[in-house]
Amino acid sequence: MAAVTSVGDAPLAVPARRPRGMQAGRRRRLNAFRYVVFAFFALFFLLPLLAMLRFSFEGSTLGTWSASAWSQIVSYQGPPPLLSAVEITLELAVLTSVVTLGLLVPTMIWIRLRVQWISPAVEFLCLLPLTIPAISLVVGLAPVYNKIRHYELSALMLFFAYVILALPYAYRSLAAGLNAIDVKTLAEAARSLGARWFTVMFRVIAPNMWQAILNALLLSAALALGEFTIAYTLLYVNLQVELFSIDRNTPNASVIFSTSLSALIFVFILLLIVSYAGRRRRRGMR
Amino acid sequence: MAVNAQTGARPVRAGRRIRLPNWLGTTPFLAYVAIFLLLPTGIIVVDAFKTPTGGLNLASLKVLFESAERSYFTGSLELCLISSVLGAVLGATLAYAIASGNPDGTVRRLYIAVSGVLAQFGGVTLAFAFVVLIGPVGLLIHASWFYDFPWGIAVIYTYFQVPLMVLVFLPAIDGVKAQWREASDSLGASTWQYWRYVGGPLLAPAFFGAALLLFANALSAFATIVAWENQIAYIVPQQIYVAINSEVGLSNVNQADVLALGMIIMVAILMTCYALLQRRAARWLR
Amino acid sequence: MTSPQTQNGQTATARTAVEVRMLGLSRRYGSVVALDELDLTVQAGELVALLGPSGCGKTTTLRLLAGLEDADAGSITVGGTDVTRLPASKRDMGMVFQAYSLFPHMTVRQNVSFGLRLRRVSSVQRDRRAMEMLELVGLSSQADRYPHQLSGGQQQRVALARALAIEPQVLLLDEPLSALDAKVRAQLRDQIRRIQLDVGITTLFVTHDQEEALAIADRVGVMRDGHIEQLASPVDVYSRPATSFVAEFVGLTNRLPGTVSGATVTVRGRDLPLVDLSTPPGPVTALVRPEAVTMASDSDGSSGPLTGTVIASTFLGATSRVTVDLGDVTIMAQLSTADATGLPAGSRVSLTIRPDPVLVSVDAPADAEA
Question: Most exposed residue of A15, A103, B70, C114, measured as fewest CB within 10 angstroms of its CB?
Fold first, then answer.
């Protein structure tokens, strides 16, 4: 699984360039180059997606068309039923994002306010998972999970590991959000008005970084939706593992593609909501 | 609050709670990370050096140099090299095309958003999409080399490497000031001379840093290759899986740990070099 | 800073200066006209400063001359050769940008000798020439430093050395001082002028700071909306402005309502000679410089069109600017600080206007602003 790269962590800032002219000949050559490059990459990125789309409408014999794959998302029996894998994964997504944020938001705000000296250490710990590939981490997680397995809990236990995987991305997003507001001043103002720490954190600071929080939420959820390595190695069943085993039984089954596309569209819509909500609020604030 | 000179303790005011040190507020976070990140990492490190009799020595490291193990590492290196070189060159080209356009334009926004989404679209879904695109039942072509290692899988890796390159390298290109090109022009440099003496050297640290990041990214990938071909283990992550889930003797438990540790060290080195190159790049291309 | 002579007393370059002639230059960006058939000739060895508000086209003119952009129409001739179609890299001009133009990955020495390296000059000669240039700008001790280790003023001096190192025919400066602090700006502008005179190179200098333009130029071209309103010596631009725009852009001006009859304009009871004798009679706005206004204490309480009360006094060092309320208009006067001290806010004063020729504009009568 490729590295989950945040969609907003290091905002690719629009470069502040005064509109400059360029020599006509050079501009023409440059534009030609750009059009060729964009056409090539548009094709490159679209083709696999189009292939997925086509196959999601594939009937039971090759070359036919059928929408059955889409209804199969719900009806595929497995074992285990696809729907239960979808359910579990959605629950994992929610659990992961909630726990990640529940862990990071209070901690980061608290550090910013009262324990700045520990900040480098915490930053190091949060970014550490970037240097520990999931496939390596799972080797050390296996004994830990073996202990937990005693309690016969479901694949939901995976969230413990997912939170760790999500830490770097959530941290960067939240750090950017914290940097954008003057935490100290807000906190002091609230305290001077009589607020206790709990109120300061959750009713003063957190609401002012809600875009970063939403972003971190989205990243953690997307990570959980796409995770395969840890679930597979620890012999749990989540969405990606399920899709994988469906393929093993029925290679290129169309339901794989309908499900994957649905997941992609779902994440994409979440993305749009987050970025749209962010923009709207910014406009409303002035 | 006056500190008691003898015990160093702070007096407790009647009716108030004892003031605890501030850093205790980070305890939940630290405890969580300790259990699910530091502990597994520690387990890996310790177990990598364990002997069958329970002692510790360096004997198990010999595993790394045996021919069978070496083939996994060479496999990994081959695949990573190809996909990161391809990803870096193609990604840099796309990034340049994006950067040389309208800073506010839709094309730029579109390609950046797409890169954000596609950089994390890896894993099983991507592999399946390529199977139905250029595999044996491929819609586009039937690539006879599709199941060859490393080129078949390298093409799939490139699909998520290119967007990652764009996201990481684009800020560097944005940091190249138009004045440098214009100054170079007015001093008499041709386009080739500009790239050779100015543009190239300036972008080199950022480019190679990003390429290292791509390399580390490819190194850690697991889901994609498993979905592509899960019978033969070509690369280290696949072998780690085999080692964990096989039941052949104690010596294999060790193997998983050693391999996992090896991977952690490799990625750590890569990320350190990346960070160093990034610093150099940032100094020039702020 | 060292004097602009090299060690053996010779001047830095021995090339003969060339004339630059721009005819009918036009340039548009989409629907915006940046330059409208501009004509400008810079004499050999002359420094012409293009002055104007942002958007007036002065930078565009410079960039067209440099070859960084193509003109839509018109021609550019340098030393008799038509360079209109030549790309920037073939035009043999040295350019100093506003900021950030030094290559950050090269030392000062490498930056300065870059142009020579492109021309395949041997490294020994390159080095010698680079050091020569660095001595010219007084930075030979910094030769092995990197740009980020230098101050803004030092960076611009290196940029100048780099531009001159290739012995260009023309020197172009695009607001080179705008990004620097005031003190550095004044020193550096004088140094640039000294070097330019010493080297004798034809120079085009773009700025929005009129003090700069007046201080260093042989001629000043005041630009507005893509054309040159006036091209004349600094003295002429200041004291004989051709249009009211020039009068108001360069230096401060009082705008006073007046009436033209014959060869004079009557302003607040005084008759002042006109610059433009063909002005038709009638109401106009007269443009009077603050230094043409003198004042004296009006202790006997007389009243008249040129008596009023001091509102404010701005201390500018050797001189002070005193604002007087005449009832229906306010007027600014520039006095020596010694004189101004005796006339604090609230004093009653009476004013005189020196009978210099004044420019009038037939725009709407002035509002009470100077």
Answer: B70
Q: For an interface test with A, which of B90, B106, B173, B222 has the most A Cβ atoms less than 10 Å from its Cβ? A: B222
Residues 6+ apart with CB under 8 A from B80: B215, B218, B219
CB within 8 A of C167, min separation 6: which ones? C13, C15
Contact C89 B189 (CB under 8 A): yes
Contact residues on chain A for C87, CB-CB shorter than 8 A: 23, 25
The DSSP call for residue C294 is: E
Q: Which CATH superfamily groups domain B64-282?
A: MetI-like (1.10.3720.10)
Identify any residues that bridge with C273 across adjacent strands, giving them in sequence order.
C264
Residues of B in contact with A62 (CB under 8 A): 137
Q: Which residues pair with C257 in a beta bridge?
A: C285
Is the pTM above the cut of 0.80? yes
- Give 3-state DSSP helix, strand, coil % of chain A, rounded to 5: 75, 0, 25
In C43-179, DSSP assigns E strands to: 47-51, 73-78, 81-82, 93-96, 170-174
CB pairs under 8 A between A and C: 19
- Closest CB to B188 among C100, C105, C118: C118
Distance CA C294, CA B177 (A): 51
Tens of pLDDT, residue by residue, chain A (286 residues)? 333 333 333 334 433 334 467 787 888 889 999 999 999 999 999 999 888 888 888 776 767 777 777 877 777 776 668 888 888 899 999 999 999 999 999 999 889 888 888 889 999 999 899 889 999 999 888 888 887 777 666 777 888 899 999 999 899 889 988 888 888 888 889 889 888 888 888 888 888 888 888 888 888 888 888 889 999 988 888 888 988 988 888 777 888 888 888 888 888 887 777 776 666 555 544 4
Of A38, A135, A248, which has the smallest distance from its Cβ to B97's Cβ? A38
Any idea which residue has 């260009």 for tokens?
C168
Distance separating alpha carbons of residues C74 and C90, to the nearest angstrom: 19
Cβ contact A110–B25 (<8 Å): yes
pLDDT at residue number C353: 87
- CA angle B216/A138/A251 to nearest 5° reads 80
Q: How many CB pairs under 8 A join A and B?
A: 257
Q: Are C259 and C235 in contact (CB under 8 A)?
A: no
Residues of chain B contacting C111 with CB distance shorter than 8 Å: none
ipTM: 0.81
Task: Give pLDDT tens digits for C49-82.
Answer: 999 998 889 999 999 999 999 999 999 999 889 9
Q: Which two tokens stand for residue A61?
A: 């014999």
Q: How far apart are CA C157 and CA C139, in angstroms?
A: 8
Mutation target to probe the B interface, by most B beta carbons within 10 A, among A12, A73, A233 is A12
pLDDT at C357 exceeding the cut of 90 = no
DSSP secondary structure of B51-95: -TTS-B-SGGGGGGGSHHHHHHHHHHHHHHHHHHHHHHHHHHHHH
Q: In chain B, which residues have their Cβ closer than 8 Å to the Cβ of C89?
A: 185-190
